Amino acid sequence: MNPVASLSQTAQEIRGLALKAISNANSGHPGGSLSIADILAVLYFGILKHDSKNPNWEERDRLIISKGHASPAVYAVLALAGYFSADEFINTFRKINSKFQGHIDRLKVPGVEVSTGSLGHGLSIANGVALGLRLKPDSKHKVYALLSDGELQEGQNWEAIMAASHYKLGNLTAIIDRNRLQLDGMTEKTMALEPLAEKFEAFGWLVKEIDGHNIEALQNVFRESSRRENTAQPLVIIANTIKGKGISFMENQVKWHGTSPKKEELEKALSELKV
Predict the structure, then answer these.
(1) Fewer CB in 10 Å around end: N or C, the chain?
(2) Confidence (pTM)
(3) Distance, CA of 81 to CA of 106 (rounded, Å)
(4) Are 94 and 102 within 8 A, CB to CB?
(5) Phi, psi (5° rounding) for residue 212?
(6) pLDDT tens, 222-263?
(7) pLDDT grade, residue 151 (50/70/90)?
(8) Using CB atoms within 10 A of its CB, is residue 161 exposed (0-12), middle (13-18) or buried (19+)?
(9) Are 157 and 120 in contact (CB under 8 A)?
(10) Containing H/E element for 64?
């Protein structure tokens, strides 16, 4: 299997594990988990410096998941990367006393960099991490922040966007999961974000806009980000995605923002994913 096909298969496995866990718990956020599966597959299996046997390895890159309610996809990729077993995640997701709760928790789950869930804070945290790492002599660490598009409607993000440019955080890459749907419907009807690329550019960021489900495009832009110098401007990748990607009856359907699939729906979804 070639590398692109292998990563595509990994993304499908992320989707499958996430849906199994959500269905088993009868609770969770499938839509935004499915839309980031390709992004996570490329990052964890080709870009990020990380070590599942030593999650706090000092030389690791940092990935801040601002959209912490997409925990099913995050837990799924961490399981595939060897941080814990997939069965443990699937069987205990959102159960009482489980470490695998609906929003990711750094204190409980190995591989989780920051506890998130209340939207809008991730980029501010990533700014601080990037600034701190830059103080280390000859630091080569990279910081990535994965945001939902809906949370960009919050003012704190734009303060963080301005600050990242001011401090020239070239070791920071923001990734926007631009699936254009949020809990209340279309982002552009709830609170319009466009022209999004031009807004980031006006705030001093380097902007790359790509198909967030194109493995080769993701590989290329992340490789470029990993080679950037720490004195350069921050980079934002606007990844155009599809909420519910990979499942015919979930794609671009706002009802699947936070609805768990029933048994028959899960079986159909897994059949479509071929996992």
Answers:
(1) N
(2) 0.98
(3) 17
(4) yes
(5) -70, 0
(6) 999 998 876 789 999 999 999 999 999 999 999 999 999 999
(7) very high
(8) buried
(9) yes
(10) strand 62-65
